[in-house]
Amino acid sequence: MVFHAHNGLGDKDTSIHFHGMFQNGTTDMDGANMLSQCPIPPGSTFTYNFTINQNGTYWYHCHVDYCYPDGYRQALIVHDKDSYFYHNYTDEFVVTLSDWYHELVEDIAPNFLSLYNPTGAEPIPDSFLFNDTLNSSLPVQPNTTYMIRLINIGAFVGQYFYIEDHKLRIVEVDGVYVDAAETDTVFLAVAQRCSVLVTTKPTTDKNYAIVTVADQTLLDTVPSQLKLNNTNWLEYNSSASHDQAVVTLDVTDSIPAFDDIGLVPYDRQELLGEPDQRIELAVVMAELGNGLPYALLNDITYTAPKVPVLYSVLSSGDQAVNSQIYGDTNAFVLGHNEVIEVVLNNNDTGSHPFHLHGHNFQIIDRAPSFEEFFSYKPLANPIPYDPNNHSAFPTYPVRRDTVLLPPHGSLVFRFVADNPGVWIFHCHIDWHLAQGLASVFIEAPRQIQEQLTVPEDHYAACRAKGVPYTGN
Ligand code: C2O
């Protein structure tokens, strides 16, 4: 795919990240600001050029601070006629769910990261959108199976998705095909995707409510005018009523969502073996004495470097394997083809959807259990993961690129470091990323040096910023 990104924003930097694309051999096309490139300055064009070897449901978005929630975000679908369920549906819908702020996020940001907000209370969205609008309908035929590709392109809040009196069959999460699993409701943290098959009824006398519910546990306050339950329509009959009693879903009362850790990948990729490297990270949200709200992984708040990390890798020769040279980016160097295990412990009372660039990963453990997690009674105290005392891992663990770390809970995943590159690992809540809730995996730096040639227009973005570089 060749994607020419022209920055016509006038006064704002940008970049484009293709969320979920592995960028195998093209880490320089990953679009992460100050990781794999300098930001694209206003008035200039920057080209992303990479090979897509994946299928399924993805999205792309701006990857500089305070940018994508204003609308620089869009679905990216890679169709696959060979998928096991391709012949099981007639037509498809792409549905984006999102939170929405009336003000520009860059205008809200100064108050968020200020002395007036020592607890780091995240700005409350003004509304929740379904395909970028407040009310929408999906027109359907009777007796027909549809694929609905759900994508949470929001910046902050997870959402439940439910269709009145219809079953959902999950067949894909984050680009990974799974054995069809039936459910009434799915939950999508921000940046997650989930594709479901829905078979329509034989009759067309009524329309059915599609209900989305925002996860209020993330919100410090719920203003009375904010609608958490929103109704759209599975429309069988455009002249039939759309204003039946609104179906609401009380997610605090029941446990309607499906546990993604129970999904089985269709390709039956087996549990990876014992790790060569274990990375333990603890999430801490804290005020550090100067009145400002910070986010930390272990004791580091991610701070963007002066030179994109990738360019430092390219220019540092043997020293590239030394994580110390990358400043306060929370860098870990991964050996080529090693099995990596990441253990995340949450010392915070909020949940955090973590995303890894360049990979998906096997989710092998999570605590507390899904039922406790969705019971809305978070653990009183953090319980760190104990590698010597855990339940059996799944034989065929589900793989995702974005996973929710429960409040005060823990999460463990594995992947193979077979994709040389510079990959940021971060909380996808845009406010938390801006607070520094990120780490960087520098995977096989010597291989990057041997294999990668960065195109000239990428370095030009740095020159325009006055950023020194000494790339290849
Ligand atoms: Cu969806 Cu770091 O990105």
From TrEMBL:
| Keyword terms | Copper, Membrane, Metal-binding, Oxidoreductase, Signal, Transmembrane, Transmembrane helix
Domain named Plastocyanin-like: which ranges? 4-82, 92-238, 302-446
Task: Give this protein's Gene Ontology molecular function annotations.
Answer: copper ion binding; ferroxidase activity
What is a single cellular component term in the Gene Ontology annotation? Answer: high-affinity iron permease complex
Gene Ontology biological-process annotations = cellular response to iron ion starvation; reductive iron assimilation
Name the family the entry cites: Belongs to the multicopper oxidase family.
Protein's name according to its UniProt entry: Ferroxidase fet3
Species the sequence originates in: Knufia peltigerae
The stretch of the full-length protein covered here is 1 to 472 of 562
